[in-house]
Structure formats: structure tokens, C-alpha cells
Design brief:
The chain is an alpha/beta fold. Helices cover 47% and strands 20% of the residues. α3 runs antiparallel to α4. The longest helix has 33 residues. The radius of gyration is 32 Å and the shape is elongated.
Length: 513
């Protein structure tokens, strides 16, 4: 079986061989291990969870009447609102109308459980309760309340709004939260911040959605967490509301569909183990590819153990870093796509770098570069195909792309380097190339030898070692060869110099031109 596969090596060439091995290794690990683990540890969407009480606190000040989207037509007239002059236009949609559209989507989100309670409070110069706490399933009543958000006027009294929202939430014992939307600056920032701090001490969480005109530094103090403030331009309010909604539940680097609230620790564990399992597949597959390329055995017990352990550790670390990088970026506009690209890039970098421990004289920087390119391309594969066929297809295709490009880029970058090479001629039509560096290339009949010779033809376990030393290429024969009559055991090799061992010819190649 091994000999049949090895006959294909001259046809595949090293980059393609490594690419196919990486692709199949990563894909098999993803199907047999990764998907099983993710499915086993996935939490269901929060249906039937403990009741939550959420107040939608909406700014209805005068500036919310500004037309910001659609096809507004100026009338040439102006109006004074709270000392500010606004151009009067017809057509288009105001900020408040966009907020109302976003609220209608929010109350129908599958993330909300039927047992949740929602309330709506409007605030400008004062605050008023538009709808008290009712079940989230009463969408018709909530729709009617949203319709009452009209006639924007007055100032931005965030303090009054937070006080009204806190008062409502004190009447319930379930987990409590406020989603605050505003496009302006608070009338009394210090008083508003004092009310917000008191609410958070009562375990009322606050999430803020704001337009670019709002004071986001102040809102970060209100929420107590920078990641709970979602700012956007006035025409993309709906996107900001979606980000705020998603922030309430766990996000995952390799999942985009609805699931439960994982929390930071559990989420990191899931992604770390998943990437660790994929890394095992890539590591073992590329070690196997290297052995096939060098006409060695499939995998030794030592290689299997080392590849499994180091692959899992490198992949687990990569997954944890990738998830930590992904989480904050994903809250930004188009950040979810960017976060996945960066996160998968980190994953590929760590996986590629780990290959430098198994491939003789593979430069770490080349392994890292091959890994990051594979990770980035794999990320785009996940994003594209997950959007078309769902997360499972996206993960599997992304994993296959990741493994393929890690393998092919590592081999390709090695081939394009100016590093000295040892060319092994197995026959007149078959040859392989090994990079020469500080790590000795072992020639002999040992199972660990890089260039394997037949023990049946009298070759000892180690015949010689070739390595680079202070710019020189040195061949050092073993003491066993002294017993066979060799008097000089160490030689400097020059470009084009050849050595024959049985049916195998070795040639030193210093000039790649």
C-alpha cells in the first residue's frame, strides 16, 4: 500500500502532496472529531430559560425627527427645535422611524423566550411609560406601544429615563436589563451616571445603542462595559440593534446560528477543543505526507504521540486566542466577518508554526506565513459557505481549505526559498528534495532516518548525517562506517557534489537558479 502511494509522489510534487494531506487530515478530523464535539457541547437557544425583564428605553427628543435615510426631498424651509435649526424635508425616514422598525424586529427575535417580559419607555425632556412589563409573546400589544413613539421633541433627559426604567424593574425578581437608545448628549450627565451606577448595583444590566452624534464615552460609563455600547451612523440603526441583541448571547468563532449563552469560559473551551482536534488531523496528515515524500513508513508510535499532543496543544492555544480576538471585533460594524478572518488567521498561524517541529529544517517564519495564509483563506470559505449552506458545511469546507493551504503554502514557501537542498534520486525518474539546515538529515536503515536505506543490504541504522554549519555543508559519517574501512568521517560538500548509497544517489544543490 505504501509503495503504491509513493509511486504517485513524482506526479503530485511536494506542494500538492502536502496540500492534499493537509486538506484530508483537517477534513477527516473535523467530520469524525470536531463536529461530534461541537454537537455534543452545543447549548440550545434560550427557550424556556429563566424569565428576563427588559426595558426598551427610547430617546424621542427633537433630534430624533431628523430624516436620515430613503430619498428625502428638501422643501427649502427650516424649523427650530430646542435652539437648533433643522431643514424641513419630505420623504425618507427619520431616526425615530428607523428605531421603531428595529424594535419591531427585536420583539420578534427567536432569541427572546415567551416567558421574557418587555416594557417600553420613551424619554425626552421627561420620561413616560408607553408600555409596562408584559410577556414578550404579546407582540400585537408591543406593536401598538411602538406606534405610540411619535412626535419627537424636547431635550435628552437620560437621567429621567433610567429612573423610570429602574423603578419598573425593581418590581420583578427575574434577571433585569435596560436597552438604551439615544442619539444625543444627556442633559445632566453626572446625574444620569449616578442613576446608572445605582441600577447596576441592583444587578440591572444596561446596554446602549447610539448614533455617532451621541457621547459614547459617557455611555461606556453608563453601561460599565465598553463592549456593551454599540454606535453606528444614523442610517444603520437596525444593525446596531442586532449587535446589541447578539451581545446578550454567546458568540462563537466557528458558529453563526442561534445557540445558547455559552459565557466566556465555556465558549473558549469549546473553540479550543475544536481547533485542537483539527490540529491533530493536520499535524498527523502532514507528518504522514512528509514520510510518504521521503519514502519512509507511515507513522511511528513516537510521531503519532508527538503529533497528537503538540497538535492539540497548538490548536487549543490557537482557538483560545482566535476566540478572544474575535469577540470584541465582532461587535463592530462588519466586525463579525473581520473577526472570523482574524481569528481563523491566528488559528492557521499556530497550526502552521507547529509543523516546523516535524519537517526537517522548515523555517519557523515560513511555517507561520503558510499557516496564516491558510487560516485567512479558510475563514473566507467558512463565511461564504456557512451563509449558503449553514454552519456545518461552512466549518467543513473552511477546515478543508485551511488544511489544504497550510500544507501547500508550507511546501511552496520551502521550495521557493534559497535554502541549500539535498536531492535524493531514488531512480532516474524519481527524486525528492530536503532542505538542509542546522537539523541533521539522517541517512541510514533506522526507521527514524530521513533517507532510508535497506538494512538487508548491510547498511547500519545511521550511515551519515548532513547538516549546515557556519555556511558549510557537512557530511559526517557514523562510527559504524569506520568499521567498514572509512578513515575520514567528516567531509565538506560542494554544490553539485554527489554521493551514492546502494541504488540511491544524493546530490547537494546550493544554487537554485
Amino acid at each position: 500500500m505504501l509503495s503504491k502511494i509513493q509511486r504517485l509522489v513524482p506526479l503530485l510534487k511536494k506542494p500538492l502532496l502536502f496540500g492534499l494531506c493537509g486538506c484530508l487530515g483537517c477534513l477527516i478530523a473535523a467530520v469524525c472529531l470536531g463536529e461530534v464535539f461541537l454537537n455534543f457541547t452545543k447549548l440550545p437557544p434560550p427557550v424556556g430559560k429563566a424569565n428576563q425583564a427588559v426595558v426598551l428605553l427610547i430617546d424621542t427628543s427633537g433630534s430624533m425627527g431628523e430624516v436620515v435615510s430613503g430619498n428625502p426631498q428638501p422643501t427649502g424651509e427650516t424649523a427650530q427645535v430646542d435652539g437648533k435649526t433643522y431643514n424641513i424635508v419630505v420623504g425618507g425616514k427619520t431616526k425615530l422611524e428607523l428605531v421603531k422598525e428595529s424594535l419591531r424586529k427585536f420583539i420578534r427575535s427567536p432569541r427572546l423566550a415567551a416567558a421574557d417580559q418587555l416594557a417600553i419607555i420613551a424619554f425626552n425632556t421627561d420620561a413616560r411609560t408607553v408600555q409596562g412589563l408584559i410577556s414578550a409573546k404579546n407582540t400585537s400589544v408591543l406593536d401598538a406601544a411602538i406606534d405610540q413613539l411619535s412626535n419627537p421633541s424636547g431635550s435628552t433627559n437620560i437621567q429621567s429615563g433610567l429612573e423610570a426604567a429602574s423603578s419598573i424593574l425593581r418590581s420583578v425578581s427575574s434577571p433585569q436589563g435596560i436597552i438604551l437608545f439615544t442619539d444625543g448628549v444627556a442633559d445632566n450627565p453626572e446625574d444620569a451616571l449616578s442613576v446608572a451606577n445605582a441600577a447596576r448595583k441592583e444587578r440591572i444590566s444596561i446596554v446602549a445603542v447610539a448614533t455617532n452624534e451621541a457621547d459614547t464615552d459617557f455611555l461606556r460609563k453608563v453601561t460599565g462595559e465598553p463592549n456593551l455600547v454599540f454606535s453606528t451612523n444614523s442610517a444603520q440603526i437596525d444593525q446596531a440593534f442586532q449587535q446589541a441583541e447578539q451581545s446578550i448571547y454567546g458568540r462563537q468563532l466557528v458558529e453563526s446560528d442561534q445557540s445558547g449563552d455559552y459565557g466566556l469560559g465555556y465558549g473558549l473551551l469549546r473553540i479550543s477543543v475544536w481547533t485542537g482536534l483539527l490540529a491533530i488531523g493536520v499535524s498527523l496528515a502532514l507528518i504522514l505526507g512528509q514520510n510518504i515524500y521521503l519514502r519512509r513508513r507511515f507513522l511511528s508510535i513516537k510521531e503519532f504521540g508527538l503529533g497528537t499532543l503538540s497538535g492539540f496543544l497548538a490548536g487549543g492555544l490557537a482557538g483560545a486566542i482566535g476566540q478572544l480576538v474575535f469577540l470584541p471585533i465582532a461587535t463592530l460594524p462588519i466586525g463579525e466577518i473581520l473577526g472570523r478572518v482574524i481569528g481563523w488567521g491566528v488559528l492557521g498561524t499556530c497550526l502552521g508554526g507547529s509543523m516546523s517541529f516535524f519537517i526537517p529544517n522548515l523555517k519557523l517564519k515560513r511555517a507561520l506565513l503558510g499557516g496564516v495564509l491558510g487560516g485567512v483563506i479558510g475563514a473566507f470559505g467558512f463565511v461564504v459557505f456557512a451563509g449558503i449552506w449553514g454552519d456545518i458545511a461552512g466549518r467543513l469546507i473552511g477546515a478543508a481549505i485551511l488544511g489544504f493551504f497550510i500544507g501547500i503554502m508550507i511546501a511552496l514557501l520551502e521550495a521557493l526559498s534559497q535554502q541549500p537542498q539535498l536531492i535524493v534520486y531514488w531512480s532516474t525518474s524519481e527524486q525528492t528534495k530536503i532542505a538542509i539546515g542546522k537539523t541533521p538529515i539522517v541517512i541510514g536503515s533506522s526507521s527514524e532516518a530521513h533517507v532510508h536505506l535497506s538494512r538487508g543490504k548491510g547498511f547500519p541504522p545511521v550511515v551519515a548525517k548532513i547538516r549546515q554549519n557556519d555556511g558549510r555543508i557537512v557530511m559526517e559519517y557514523s562510527e559504524a562506517m569506520r568499521d567498514q574501512g572509512m578513515k575520514i568521517l567528516v567531509f565538506d560538500l560542494k554544490d553539485g557534489e554527489k554521493r551514492k548509497f546502494g541504488d540511491i544517489m544524493l546530490e547537494i544543490k546550493l544554487n537554485h537558479n
